[in-house]
Amino acid sequence: MGTLSLPRKVSVLGSTGSVGVSTLDLLEKAAVPVEMIALAAGRNVAKLAEQALRWRPQVAVIQDESCLPELRARLDGSGVRAAAGASAVTEAAAMDAQWVMSAIVGFAGLAPTLAAARTGAVIALANKESLVCAGPALLRRARLAGGAVIPVDSEHSAIFQVLEPQNAQQVRRLILTSSGGPFRNATAEEMARATPEQAVAHPNFSMGAKISVDSATMMNKGLEVIEAAYLFAMPPEQIEVLVHPQQIIHSLVEYADGSSLAQLGPPDMRPPIACAFAWPDRLPWPAPRLDLVNSGPLTFHDPDQDRFPALGIAKDALAAGGWAPAAMNAANERAVSAFLDRRIGFLDISGAVAETLERMDRQNLLGDGGDDPVELARATDAAARRVADEVVSGLMAQA
After folding, report:
1. Which pLDDT does position 264 carry in this prediction?
2. Which terminus of the chain is more solvent-facing, meaning fewer CB atoms within 10 Å of its CB: N or C?
3. CB < 8 Å & 24+ apart, contacts of 86-91
């Protein structure tokens, strides 16, 4: 095997979350010699400080400004600069890194990801919302700067690996697989009584609360349909979802000649991260091996869109275009937050998102006007959050 051409200057945004931790674990296990430029986290100051003392980045940034004194105390004498606040995270993203893991959860990840795109770095994208809210702008900025966006979500990584560019016009369908989440076999009555603890208990992965709830409602798959449409320039009608509880087949590409190419692997985030880090090479590391003999039967079925309406809501937002996907994302963030705070029920989440989009459409708040896609995304996000909060308040009053 020849010498791999790997990035040496690395930043990890969202370093204390599940994807960030997996990224650093991969780099450690692969013994990759990297210069850590920046580590950024939300509010887990103890974990961020521990990572900073191990990797010695130029800067460690905590988004919650109230955590800055503790971060400075923990890093005292280490030579690692401490910073805090959303603007500091964006500034860190714009530093001189060759490879940036974008794993900040939610709309908060948009500005840092766009800042990284302007530098010409390769962006390993785990932040769904950046694509959902401003996908065309993000991809265009990365391309113009000479960089690239490589997906890290296992489903999009799978498609990225098997979608042959020379045959892109011959693709019949992209098929995204889904675990079905913790309520895959639950009745509507059981879902109506679901608690936050039950909703975050993903059957295959340990993830953050918001992402886990999105999996439970299947909104995560709706967001992934929108991502796939942008990433792979694919019409919505050629993107489908298939429930595959074992999550061995991560996604498939069906071609016009009847061939379907799939990428398989154990349910582990590190292989798609390794793919994004080394592409077009492959990174040797002690990866978990796929044991098909003992993995049991592989099963598949269509998603139940009556029990999981979020998937249809997302497809409708994609078809509507404009800033409907950004508004949907904001409404979902507010509704999930309300559920996690026990202010609304599990089944209220999708209803709140749908009602928010309907009200915004009636109020003509989903237009395309303006020239700056980032500012438009911010304005849409803020408007949708206000409307979603009104919807949530109404649901609470009815309870």
Report:
1. 96
2. N
3. 86/111, 88/61, 88/63, 89/13, 89/40, 89/61, 89/63, 90/115, 91/115
Q: What is the pLDDT of residue 228?
A: 96
CA dist., res. 176 & res. 313, Å (int): 17
Looking up tokens 């040797």 gives: 284
pLDDT (tens digit, 9 = 90+) per residue, 210-239?
A: 889 999 999 999 999 999 999 999 999 999
Angle, helices 18-29 vs 45-55, to 10°: value is: 20
> CA distances (Å), 330 to each of 105, 134, 189, 319, 321, in order?
12, 13, 27, 17, 15
Pairing of strands 249-255, 260-264: antiparallel
Identify the pLDDT of residue 2. Answer: 47
Q: Is the pLDDT of residue 350 over 70?
A: yes
pLDDT at 143: 95
Mean pLDDT of 49-53: 98
- The answer to whether 383 touches 361, Cβ cutoff 8 Å, is no
pTM: 0.90
Q: How far apart are the first and last CA of the chain?
A: 64
- Alpha-carbon distance of 349 to 267, in angstroms, equals 27
CA distance 301 to 326: 29
- Our measurement of the distance from residue 108's CA atom to the centroid of its chain's CA atoms, rounded to an integer in Å, reads 12
- In percent, how much of the chain has pLDDT > 70? 96
Amino acid letter for position 355: E
Percentages of the chain per state (helix, strand, coil), in multiples of 5: 50, 15, 35
The dihedrals phi and psi of 99, each to the nearest 5 degrees, come to: -140, 125
Amino acid sitting at position 316: D
Burial of 31 per CB tally in 10 Å (0-12, 13-18, 19+): exposed
| Alpha helices (H) along the chain | 18-29, 45-55, 68-74, 86-93, 110-118, 128-144, 154-162, 188-192, 196-199, 209-217, 219-231, 270-278, 310-320, 324-340, 348-362, 373-398
Write down the residue that tokens 């999708």 correspond to: 350
Tokens of 40: 């950024």
